[in-house]
Amino acid sequence: MIRLALVVLVLANVISAIGVVYARHQHRELYVQLTRLERERDELDIEFGRLQLEQATWAESNRIDQVARSRLGMKFPATDEIVVVRP
Where along the sequence do coiled-coil regions lie (predicted)? Predict the structure, then answer.
C-alpha cells in the first residue's frame, strides 16, 4: 500500500516536472515571437513615417505648381484673360 502511494507520488512529480518544462518551453517560444513582432512593428512604424513625409513633400503646393508648369505646360492666366461668369 505504501509502495503504491510512493509510486503514484513519484509519477505525479515526474508528470508535474514535464509540465513545467513544457510550459517554460512554450513561454520561450512565445517570447521570441513577441520580440520578432515588436521588431517588425517598429520597422513598419519607421516606414509609415517615411511614407507620411514623402506624401507631405509630394502634396506641397509649390511642388504641384512646379509639376503643372513643367509637365503640363500650365500657367496662371493674365488679368485680361480672366472671365467672370455670373449666374
Answer: 27-54
Q: Would you give the distance in Å from CA 39 to the centre of its chain?
A: 9
Per-10-residue mean pLDDT, the chain, length 87: 93 97 98 98 98 88 85 88 89
CB 75 within 8 A of CB 69: yes
Cα distances (Å, whole numbers) of residue 51 to 6, 54, 83: 67, 5, 40
Domain boundaries along the sequence of the chain: 20-69
Cell numbers describing residue 15: 508528470
Enclosing H/E stretch for 86:
none
